[in-house]
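From the pipeline queue, job 12 of 40. The input is one protein chain; the requested action is below.

Action: predict structure.
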Amino acid sequence: MKIVFALILMFSAKLLFADIASQKAWTIHNRIAGVPPNPSTDVLARMTRAIQQSPGEVGLENAAKIAMENPYFYDLVLKNWVKPWSNAEKSNRVPLNDYVTTIVGAIRDSDIPGKPFSRILYDDFVYVGPATGNEDNNFSRKTNNHYDALESSNVSLSNRAQVIERKQSEAINTETVNNQDLLDVSNMLVGGVNGAAGVLTSRASGDAYFDMGTNRRVTRFALINFMCNDYEDIHDTSLPNTRIRKDVERTPGGDSRTFLTKCIGCHSGQDGLGGAFAYYDYNNETNALEFTPGQVASKMTHLPAYSNGYQTVDDSWINYWGEFSVHNKKLGFKPPFKGRGIASLGRSISESRGFSLCMAKKVFKLMCVRPPLTEDDGFITKMADSLESGNQYNMKKVFSSTVAYCVEDKYEI
């Protein structure tokens, strides 16, 4: 009788483990792809076996990798996750664009050696879709037609054969017809100078962040989107004011103390970095981001409210938030703290500790359906370390590890 009872217990435990593994697999698929596993396929069975064969973190990560094979990971989850980064309203109710497509493509290919995700802020590339046979949908830096057509088509962003990487500095024709008139020649190589810097110089970025204003918006949203900090989070009145531009009033409301106790706290840092964008402006007549190397955009120097303020004369920048600020422990900027041009600033941001921590936190919130808590700090640090390891910046690894971490304790055996 004892032997029979023991066998019953063993069999029941095996069934229970199989059921829990299946539940974990189902949850992982839902988190990764945004939809349940298709019952007409063997996906759930494959994921369940992966969990059973390697109990713990390894098995859960292997199951997550299987779930990533579902195109919805790219076409639903990632696309809607990234869309708010591409506009000042932080809305996902916007069309697919070059900014979003490039980030999704960079995540998709981040497990390929030599293609670290960090390059999205400094490298010369953009992701484009396939030909449609309609010349009006050819890639252009003056319209979004190409990406509108891509979103309305059946082409998946997961398809490496059809959604491919091209250079921003080259003339691009996405149609199969070899017609010189179809080449988009308004590229980021002007007078032999390459002004490309990943999504920072995408058309969508130009429309959202370089249009009107004084290019301060692009600095702000680079910090929000890629370092998870807004100006108020890193307000520091102890920074040097030597780069604050002429258009900033030094006695707002007739009281200079307001400038010293409030305005300087944001303007010192943002204007120090702002020179990186001096040669860029969004042209509302052509609907394109324009790069004019050696020529400072007029909006960077107009309306002087204080004649002794800093005059932008080139694209040099100084990172006061990195060199002098008490917030640098949180931001984690690394030397050099100065440079020339948008690509060098983009690289400084993407190689900062703040970038790695921000990406880890964003993925955590998406996969765990909650913000990280204090008890999750160790895991967030681990994911930031994983990104920086060997300069790989493999975002797919962060996704699989994070969903495994969140699901591991959801069910108890």
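Job complete. The chain has 15 helices and eight strands.
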